[in-house]
Specification:
The protein is of the alpha/beta class and about 450 residues long. It is about 35% helix and about 20% strand. Strand 13, helix 13 and strand 14 form a beta-alpha-beta unit. The protein is globular.
Length: about 450
């Protein structure tokens, strides 16, 4: 009987893509990927180590996996906290690092044969590996490993190292194959998409231009890009985002509204740089959705620094805001600084969350009565609901029964801070009509004042 594998997949889009690839490698070699721990012979835990709460959650789950199950631990966490810390929680027989690729096959085979396999280097994720997607219509494409930054708080760069970009040809080939396999939404993922290709004489703009030439009915979501890299390619990124192939969406972390804190974080840009990017994008692409990240409670953050963050957010009004309390991560320079009292961090987080809710409420309300094209891309949390994304990557909750992966015309009837609510106007669009609507959406605008 073939051995059965259960995958616990944690973390960012890159990590989850690597989990899908490891599952694909194992399935292609005769293993059966199952949906529950109880049905498995071995549990593959693909870990993330970006935040302390995430680490604690994963280690708690690892500790409580059934004792009759073999375990292989993969991903960033072993490199961040060390193999010994993993073994203290659970004496697993297999540990591998991030971007493991086909290395997972050796680890799983060795552990199931009664041996031990512990190796944190040597893996090399390949975009052309077989892949078992979590969502049948979404493909996460990893365009590079590592980054060029040296942020004082980041442990992920310690786990993944310096920038290693995959070739434009490999990425485009992977997208073509995915589209032929039914994918309708492609995510371009990495630690920092803006620096893609700088290690091999290419650039993110060149990659986007080549992707725009790929034929087929699909849309592309460009993942996180740091401001410093965006500034180097701002003209080209703006022009690429105007192409109908790409969602009008950008994820650029601010992290702090204080230049002093940005300098302490070693981020390499100013608040004014960030604002210039956002204002340029909104001027040229009025419907663009802006997502950003903020760290609250960095060790050197004063009350004045925090107030500057609030002011920056009030001024720029990002559509989506991810708030993270600062947690000292092993091996980072920020972990050696005196930490702010947890009470202060919690208070600032509450204030920031309240402001974020107010901004999201305002930005979402402008979409009520909008009507246009959307792609149905996932099942909702509420029973019998689906989620569609319009060209600005706004989530629209639907109650009608439509096929995942289909393009529809939708009318927005109401809103919540985190999503819109809509009704399907037309679910029987042919390819020509979808293309016509994409062109129309590309040149339309919406007032968010």
């Amino acid at each position: 009987m073939n051995s059965r594998i259960f995958l616990l997949n944690y973390g960012c889009a890159v990590n989850r893509a690597e989990g899908e690839a490891m599952a694909g490698v194992l399935a292609s070699r005769g293993f059966t990927i199952v949906d529950s721990e109880d049905d498995a012979d071995l549990v593959l835990v693909n870990t993330c180590g970006v935040k302390t709460p995430t680490e604690n959650k994963i280690l708690h789950r690892l500790k409580n996996i059934r004792r009759d199950k073999e375990i292989v631990v993969a991903g960033c966490l072993p490199r961040i906290i060390g193999v010994n810390r993993i073994l203290e929680v659970r004496n697993v027989k297999g540990v591998i690092g991030p971007a493991a690729g086909e290395e997972v096959l050796k680890a799983v085979q060795t552990v199931l044969s009664g041996g031990r396999y512990i190796r944190l280097d040597g893996g090399d994720f390949n975009n052309l590996l077989p892949c078992l997607r979590e969502n049948p219509v979404i493909r996460r494409i990893v365009i590079s490993q590592g980054c060029l930054g040296a942020c004082s708080y980041c442990a992920t760069r310690l786990a993944r190292g310096r920038l290693r970009s995959y070739s434009v040809e490999e990425i485009v080939t992977s997208i073509r194959r995915s589209v032929k396999d039914g994918v309708r939404e492609v995510w371009l993922s990495s630690q920092d998409n803006s620096v893609y290709g700088m290690d091999r004489g290419s650039s993110i703009v060149e990659l986007l231009e080549k992707i725009a030439e790929v034929e087929g009915l699909f849309l592309v979501r460009i993942g996180m890009m740091n401001p410093r890299g965006v500034l180097n390619h701002l003209d080209g990124i703006v022009e690429a985002l105007k192409n109908k192939r790409f969602f009008k969406f950008i994820h650029i972390p601010l992290q702090s509204g204080s230049n002093r804190i940005l300098e302490d974080m070693n981020r390499g840009y100013s608040v004014e740089d960030f604002a210039r990017i956002i204002l340029r994008l909104r001027k040229e692409i009025p419907k663009i959705s802006v997502e950003t990240d903020v760290i609250v409670g960095y060790p050197t953050e004063s009350r004045e620094d925090f107030e500057k963050t609030l002011e920056a957010l009030r001024t720029l009004e990002p559509d989506f805001l991810n708030i993270s309390k600062f947690y000292a991560r092993p091996g980072t320079s920020a972990s050696r600084l005196p930490q702010l009292p947890s009470k202060i961090v919690a208070e600032r987080s509450r204030i920031l969350s309240k402001l974020a809710l107010e901004i999201k409420e305002k930005r979402s309300s402008a979409w009520v009565d909008w009507e246009g094209l959307a792609l149905v891309d996932e099942k909702g949390i509420v029973p019998v609901s689906l989620i569609a994304r319009n060209m600005s990557y706004r989530p629209i909750v639907l109650k009608q029964n439509v096929e995942i992966g289909s393009f529809i015309r939708v009318h927005v009837t109401s809103h919540k801070p985190n999503f819109l609510v809509g009704e399907v106007v037309d679910k029987d669009l042919d390819e020509a009509e979808v293309i016509r609507l994409l062109e129309k959406e590309n040149h339309a605008s919406i007032s968010l004042s």
